[in-house]
Structures are given as C-alpha cells and as structure tokens.
C-alpha cells in the first residue's frame, strides 16, 4: 500500500554546531517547526569532535562568539584571549541550555541522503538510524571540516600500539607520559598539538610533509580591562567587525605596503606586527595576499624568526616553508611550536626525504629506517568544504545528484544555494567567504539571510526558491576571478582541494572580503532576490 510519510516539518537543519544551533533558534523564533539532526552525541560540531590536546581557536573569543544576544555576550566570561576547545564547548553548551535548544535536536544520527520531492516541493531525508524526515526546507549546517581524512598507509591495521585522529579524539583523558609518539601532519591541528604532547611524552617524532608558516598567538588570561572595553560597547564593535574583509575588529590600523618602506621601517613594522601576533600578522599589511614582493618580505621575516628560534640549523632549515607564499596555505597560529624543536625529546622527520612506506607492528618505516613508537597521532586534515556535503547523497530536481553536479568543483550561488536544488540552503558553503573570516560572524550572517529568505517566501506565498543557472555560473566565475587576483591559488592547500587525491583543483572560498560579500547578499535581497527563481505550488496541498 501507500507509504505513510512522517509529519511534514517546516525545516530540517543538519548539524548542531555554531551554525545549526543558531539556525534552530532563529527559525523557531519565526514559529516554524524545526528538527535538528546531529551526528555527534552532543552539541558543538567542530568543537565537539576536535578534542585533541592543545585544540584552540585562533580568533579571539570576544569575537569568536555569538553576537545575537546582548544578554549572552554580556554574561559570558572567557578565561583566556584565545579559548581552548573545552572552554568553547562549555560556551556552546551554555547557549544550547539558555535557549532551550536540545529538545529539538536528535543526536547520534547522521543524515545519509536528502532527496527533493518535486511533486510535493519538499525534502525527504534519510538517516543512519533508518528514520525518514520530511521538511519544506533543508539547511545543511554541517561545517567545512567534518569529513576527516586518514591517509591509507600500508600496515596500520597491524600496528600494535594505539592510534588517534585529532578530529576523532576520544572523550577520556589520554596521557602520553612515558610513551613514544609519532605525529603525522603539521597543519593547524598538528602545530597546536605537538607542543602539548611533547611536554608529556617520552619522545615525539614529528612527521612533516610540508613546513608551515606559523605566527605566535601571544595568548594569555583575558584582562578584565580588555573584557570591559569590549562589553562597554559590544554591539558597536561587532558592527565594526562586519565592515571588514575578515569580519574581525583588529587592534591596529592597517600599515602601508612593505614594498615602499626602507629596510629599517620594514623591520620595525614587521616586528610590531609580530608582537600583535596571530592572524592579525596577515591583516596588518594590506597587500600581503596580493603583492608577491610584499609577501616575500614578510615571509623572509618569518623565516628569520624560525632561524632565530630553532637552535639546530638543519632542523630550522627543514621547518622553513620555501615553496609557497605566506598565508596561501591557511596561516597557523601557535604557542611554542618552533621552540618545541629545541627539546631533546622531539625529532623532526622530514617526509620530503622519503614518505612513510609502511606502518609496522612497532613503528613507522621510511626506507630502511624504523621509528619505534607506541602511539601514532594523525593530524592529517579534512576533505574541506565540499567533503561533508558530498558524503550525503543529495538529489535535487530530476533526481540530479550533487556529486555529479560538482564533479569538476563546487557550484553555488553565494555559497548559500545550488541551482536545481530548491529549498536547500548551506551555511558556510563553498563559494561563501566563511573559512577566510571569523567563522562565527559569517555563520550569523548566513543564518540571518536564510531566515529572512524564508520570511520572504512565506509572505509572498512562494513554495520554492532556487538560484538561476546563469546567476550561479556568474558567481562561480566571480569567485575564481577574485581568487586569481590573489596569491592564494598558488599553494597546494585545502582551499584548492590539493590535500585530497583526485579532488578537482578549484579555489573554493570567496576571497572578495566578508564586507563586500554581505553587501552583495543584501543587494540581492533588495533587488527582490535577484538571480533566484521562486515558484508557487501547483496544488496548495499541504498547509
Ligand atoms: P591541514 O591544515 O589540512 O593539515 C594536515 C597536515 O597533514 C598537513 O601538514 C599535511 O601535509 C599533512 N598530511 C596530510 N596527508 C598526509 C600524508 N599522507 N602523509 C604525511 N602528511 C600528511 O589540517 P588541520 O587539521 O591541521 O587544519 C584544518 C583547518 O582547521 C585549519 O586550516 C584551520 O582552518 C582549522 P601537506 O601540507 O598536505 O603536505
């Protein structure tokens, strides 16, 4: 007989991280029926999964937090300038409780397929638990770094010791005291983890394939005066952040180009920027991501800092990035990373002299040499941005699959929607600037935009919205053209998918700046959703 479908919801939100939680809150405020489906057993997304020692945000917590509730931003106290993962998770849990969000979240459940039903104009979603959900709107709030990758290295299954993955870290406390540990990968995760593990372990072997640029965070306790300064005028400072390309309120005025300066001026400005530290090092000079000459000067300054810090010159040389401009692979922010290589219990294993041939029962073999270890930590990254979406079997009009549509790279309009996939929204999707900005700001902007869009549809009695193919094509072209004005496509980074074998090389995020992006999104709304097509239902069946 006829299959009985579950109750039609207004929206299903996939993911209960920063995006999904705020999306739920906003939609519920509109009186909509919403259910969130979350793979993890609790809220937090990225901050739920990435529990490795040293995990920390590299944007200041006064800014890496929600702005939508004045009460929330006034009441919350961050202990440090840059928060560690447990603190951020504690905050997210507080938000979930304060806004009573948990009651609409189904945990421990993965969405495996999302199929658009053209006759009913609704999304049918299937989960790992075998449930089926039906909703008018589907919102993918699944994050950019939720599809982790472990390299397929021969012999891992025969390894006698334990192995871990930074983004699937166990919940219990892992102690490395007395143990010999190999860490594979020196991206942001590895660079945060290595100094912490080195303090516990008997020995750490750092297996590095590509050296990374990293700038010290200069983290410390959040000073009450600084906190007060933010809180005294929070809304205004947040507003100022919205007007910047990275959605960050910086501490210092942008400096002029390094190119025109004298060597003394350069040194002084670079030193000043180094003292500010973190990602602001990249923002302090306006042209580092555009001008190779300027970038070379800053990169050489950082290389010299590595040479000054690392005592053994051959180790320093191996840690110095030479093959790509500064900031074109995601810039890392650290606490004592390069200093760690001065410890007697840390060995740098340069995989450029030979990659890992095999994992033996007792260690890692590179050519004839075996590094005997008790534990292996994989800090080997993610199939970033597109991976999480492509893991789900998403089908739009005419059963068209997103995997086919994106075979040569992601195609979206504004990073928010996809032609032929009506009523499907993405938060922080490819084609949006999110990963190049303060993610929490981008998330709020996306979620607010989606909320406004649903209000517009309801007000005008529309049942579907989707981008026009031409608008989408123009956006994809624009995202690429802007990227090509910068130095970023030059590096083999996850921005271009270079870390995943066989992934098409396309620069995925929008680098035109958060401020311009947000204005563009608003202009499109003001022009009656320019580039989108809205339709009314053939039959007013399901209200
Ligand atoms: P990343 O930045 O992708 O770093 C992964 C690291 O793992 C990087 O050093 C890779 O080297 C290395 N890697 C990957 N595969 C291998 C193999 N097969 N052998 C050796 N080394 C390997 O991931 P993170 O988790 O550190 O950070 C992700 C983002 O999260 C970060 O950018 C922030 O935005 C937040 P490679 O450079 O590819 O040669």
Automatic annotation (TrEMBL):
The keyword NADP applies. Its cofactor is FAD. It comes from the Eukaryota. Transmembrane segments: none annotated. Its EC number is 1.-.-.-. GO terms for molecular function: flavin adenine dinucleotide binding; N,N-dimethylaniline monooxygenase activity; NADP binding. Signal peptide: none annotated. Keywords: FAD, Flavoprotein, Monooxygenase, NADP, Oxidoreductase. The keyword Thylakoid does not apply. Belongs to the FMO family. Belongs to the FAD-binding monooxygenase family. This is Flavin-containing monooxygenase. It comes from Rotaria magnacalcarata.
């Amino acid at each position: 007989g006829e299959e009985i479908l579950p109750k039609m919801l207004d929206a299903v939100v996939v993911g209960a991280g920063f995006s999904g939680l705020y999306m739920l809150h906003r939609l519920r405020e509109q009186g909509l029926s919403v259910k969130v489906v979350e793979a993890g057993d609790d809220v937090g997304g990225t901050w739920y999964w990435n529990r490795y020692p040293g995990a920390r945000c590299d944007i200041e917590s006064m800014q890496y937090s929600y702005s939508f509730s004045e009460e929330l931003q006034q009441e919350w106290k961050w202990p440090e300038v840059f928060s560690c993962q447990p603190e951020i998770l504690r905050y997210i849990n507080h938000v979930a409780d304060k806004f009573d969000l948990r009651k609409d979240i189904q945990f421990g459940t993965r969405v495996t397929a999302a199929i658009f039903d053209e006759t009913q104009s609704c999304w049918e979603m299937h989960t790992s638990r075998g449930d089926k959900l039906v909703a008018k709107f589907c919102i993918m709030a699944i994050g950019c770094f939720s599809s982790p990758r472990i390299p397929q290295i021969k012999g891992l299954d025969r390894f006698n010791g334990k192995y871990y993955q930074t983004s699937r870290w166990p919940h219990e406390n892992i102690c490395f005291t007395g143990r010999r540990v190999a860490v594979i990968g020196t991206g942001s995760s590895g660079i945060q983890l290595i100094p912490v593990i080195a303090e516990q372990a008997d020995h750490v072997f750092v297996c590095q394939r590509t050296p990374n640029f990293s700038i010290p965070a200069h983290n410390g306790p959040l000073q009450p005066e600084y906190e007060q300064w933010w809180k005294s005028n929070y809304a205004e400072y947040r507003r100022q952040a919205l007007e910047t390309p990275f959605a960050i309120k910086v501490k210092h005025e942008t400096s002029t180009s390094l190119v025109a300066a004298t060597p003394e001026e350069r040194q002084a400005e670079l030193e000043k920027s180094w003292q500010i530290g973190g990602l602001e090092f990249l923002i302090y000079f306006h042209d580092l991501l555009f001008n190779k000459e300027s970038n070379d000067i800053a990169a050489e300054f950082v290389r010299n800092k590595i040479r000054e810090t690392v005592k053994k010159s051959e180790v320093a040389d191996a840690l110095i990035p030479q093959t790509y401009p500064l900031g074109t692979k995601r810039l890392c922010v650290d606490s004592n990373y390069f200093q760690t290589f001065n410890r007697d219990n840390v060995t740098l294993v340069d995989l450029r002299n030979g990659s890992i041939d095999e994992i033996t029962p007792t260690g890692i073999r590179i050519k004839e040499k075996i590094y005997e270890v008790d534990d292996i930590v994989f800090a080997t990254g993610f199939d970033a941005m597109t991976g999480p979406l492509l893991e789900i079997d998403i089908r739009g009009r005419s059963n068209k699959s997103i995997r086919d549509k994106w075979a040569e790279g992601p195609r979206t309009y504004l990073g928010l929607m996809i032609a032929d996939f009506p009523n499907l929204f993405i938060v922080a999707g490819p084609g949006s600037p999110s990963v190049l900005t303060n993610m929490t700001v981008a998330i709020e902007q996306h979620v607010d935009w989606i909320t406004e869009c649903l209000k517009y549809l309801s007000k005008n009695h529309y049942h579907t919205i989707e981008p026009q193919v031409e608008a989408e094509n123009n956006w994809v072209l624009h995202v690429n053209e802007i990227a090509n004005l910068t130095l970023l496509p030059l590096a083999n980074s996850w921005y271009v998918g270079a870390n995943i074998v066989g992934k098409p090389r396309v620069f995925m995020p929008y680098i035109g700046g958060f401020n311009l992006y947000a204005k563009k999104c608003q202009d499109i709304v003001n022009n009656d959703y320019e580039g989108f097509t809205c339709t009314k239902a053939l039959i007013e069946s399901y209200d």
